[in-house]
Design brief:
With 374 residues, the protein is of the alpha/beta class. It is built from eleven helices and eleven strands. It folds into two domains: 137 residues, 3-Layer(aba) Sandwich (D-Maltodextrin-Binding Protein, domain 2); 146 residues, Bacterial extracellular solute-binding protein, family 7 (D-Maltodextrin-Binding Protein, domain 2), CATH 3.40.190.170.
């Protein structure tokens, strides 16, 4: 090979090395450009969604159907909000006791509570119309009637919270150690009831006690109480089958009224889209509450029967006597509200409305084929 050929080869090798070096530089530059351009094309990074944690409480045991329902309600809020609403759940009075739930909600100690109005004696005079002996026929009927009543009259007494939905027990029944088959059997008996039901027991000749339900089992077992008057869920929720032998179904002693409600400041702090979620889910839980009560009451009655508890229904003559006796309770309720500044026609209008809705929803239950308790 001559010197010229060698020189040409050397130049070619140098040229290839230069091109290779330039190629790597270009490739590196292009890679950097891609790294810069791609994030810009992808748009801004998604913002992390802020989670609002709701503190919720009730006094009822965690395993009670009512508590299970509220926990499911909270879980549905979480799901339907896409995780924007979360919750911390305090059942069984672990945060607020039965007498403190509603006021605790107004004060922001809990964001959502399920309370029973009868633990706040005199606090809800308009809603107390629903505790009167009008003849609520079932928990299914009670729940619909209570929600209708609230929507119709919007009582100011609950305006210091934001009511989400209401529900109600079956007609109150009497769980006793001794049988109650006629009015005279109640004379001298001490029965636990909600404070809103005191006038009913007093009119029937018994002495009411308003201790918390959590203390009733022990009080009956120690003979401090002769029994209690509550909804039909007493065997499953409060294990009353261990301490009573009889259950009487008078069908005229009113019901218990329950409210699931939210602190006003918490409600007002929610953005509009989350308020819509809460409102929508709450509306769906009226039917959920109806079903919960029917399931709980059926299971409770079955458990009571399995414990050997005797169920008593009043004969027609005795039922009429009880209804006549309790007319005085209705008259006294109207008179008390008139003394407090309401017109007689307005208060009687509340009771007439309740009676009309009871008739309507009772027929709806019959048409739907939903069974009634004894």
């Amino acid at each position: 090979m001559d010197e010229r050929s060698e020189e040409v080869q050397v130049k070619e090798v140098r040229m290839i090395k230069r091109l290779s070096k330039v190629g790597w530089i270009v490739l590196a530059a292009l890679s950097c450009l891609v790294l810069v351009v791609l994030p810009a094309c992808a748009g801004p990074a998604e913002e992390e969604v802020a989670v609002i944690t709701l503190t919720a409480a009730t006094w009822m045991p965690a395993t009670a159907g009512q508590s299970v329902m509220v926990e499911a309600f909270l879980e549905d809020l979480k799901t339907e909000s896409g995780g924007q609403l979360d919750y911390v759940w305090h059942p069984g009075g672990s945060l607020l006791g039965p007498f403190d739930l509603y006021e605790g909600c107004t004060e922001g100690l809990a964001d959502i509570v399920m309370c029973a109005l009868h633990y706040s004696a005199g606090r809800f005079p308009t809603m107390d119309a629903l505790y009167q002996p009008i003849g609520i026929s079932s928990a299914w009927v009670a729940t619909h009637v209570i929600n209708d009543f609230y929507e119709e009259f919007q009582p100011a007494e609950v305006a210091d919270t934001h009511p989400l939905f209401w529900h109600g027990s079956a007609p109150l029944v009497m769980y006793t150690k001794e049988p109650v088959q006629e009015l005279a059997d109640l004379n001298g008996m001490i029965l636990r009831c909600g404070s809103s039901n005191n006038p009913i027991l007093e009119a029937l000749g018994a002495t009411p006690s308003n201790i918390p339900m959590a203390d009733v089992y022990e009080s009956i077992s120690k003979n401090l109480l002769d029994g209690c008057m509550i909804g039909a869920d007493g065997f499953t929720v409060w294990a009353l089958g261990d301490v009573v032998a009889y259950t009487t179904f008078p069908k005229i002693c009113g019901c218990d009224v329950f409210l699931v409600t939210m602190n006003n400041d918490k409600w007002n702090s929610l953005p509009a889209d989350l308020q819509e979620v809460v409102t929508s889910v709450s509306a769906s839980y009226i039917d959920e509450a109806c079903q919960m009560w029917e399931d709980e009451n059926t299971a409770s009655c079955n458990l009571g029967e399995s414990k050997g508890v005797e169920f008593i229904t009043l004969c027609a003559e005795e039922q009429a006597l009880w209804e006549d006796t309790l007319q005085a309770v209705l008259d006294d309720y109207v008179a008390a509200r008139v003394d407090a500044g309401k017109s007689q026609s307005e208060v009687e209008g509340w009771l007439d409305y309740i009676a009309e809705r009871v008739d309507y929803w009772t027929q709806e239950q019959i048409d739907a084929g939903i069974p009634f308790l004894p």
